[in-house]
Specification:
With 175 residues, this protein is an alpha+beta fold. The protein contains 2 helices and 8 strands.
Length: 175
């Protein structure tokens, strides 16, 4: 039995010598951790050429743009002029009565050209939406840490490929 205990001690000692005690892992940052975020430069307001000649209400402030797909973008503008004033402006400038999309909240669409489903994601148009009523005190736009509310939002979607020209408005659709 002494031989067996000696042999067991020798085997345990050999195994222990081959596998030294493991050290606790060194903490590392989360996988995929990257450098500090980059500072985003505000998007400059689009010019007439970008908007395909679509008019922008004089006191409207450019907010941002979004990819609509198929080579089109949504351009958002905010203003604290009331909905009726903005709709009147676009009726006069576009010589088009537009059409009411919703009554609550009020939305009016003015077509800027014909919709071609083969190469467009959205009809070329100016859409005016009223944010003055209801539970919210206006459309909330946040830029970094700055918040601002707008009573009316104007969305302009030019036709793809229009550069500096306004296409002929489509005939109003029957309601």
């Amino acid at each position: 039995m002494a031989v067996a205990l000696g042999l067991a001690a020798m085997i345990v000692g050999t195994v222990h010598a081959q596998n030294p005690p493991t050290r606790p892992p060194v903490p590392r940052p989360f996988p995929g951790a990257s450098a500090p975020p980059t500072v985003q430069v505000p998007e400059p307001p689009p010019g007439d050429a970008t908007l395909g000649g679509a008019p922008v209400y004089p006191t409207a402030e450019f907010l941002e743009s979004f990819d609509a797909g198929r080579g089109q973008r949504y351009y958002l503008y905010g203003t604290n002029s009331d909905f009726e004033t903005i709709v009147g402006y676009y009726r006069n400038v576009l010589r088009n009565g537009g059409r009411e999309i919703f009554r609550a909240p009020l939305m009016q669409q003015f077509d800027l050209g014909r919709f071609n489903e083969d190469n467009m994601a959205f009809p070329p148009s100016v859409v005016v939406k009223d944010y003055s009523g209801g539970a919210t005190p206006g459309y909330l736009f946040v830029d970094g840490t700055t918040e601002k509310r707008y009573l009316t939002i104007i969305q302009i979607v030019p036709a793809p490929g229009t550069v500096g020209r306004l296409t002929a408005p489509a005939a109003p659709r029957p309601q």
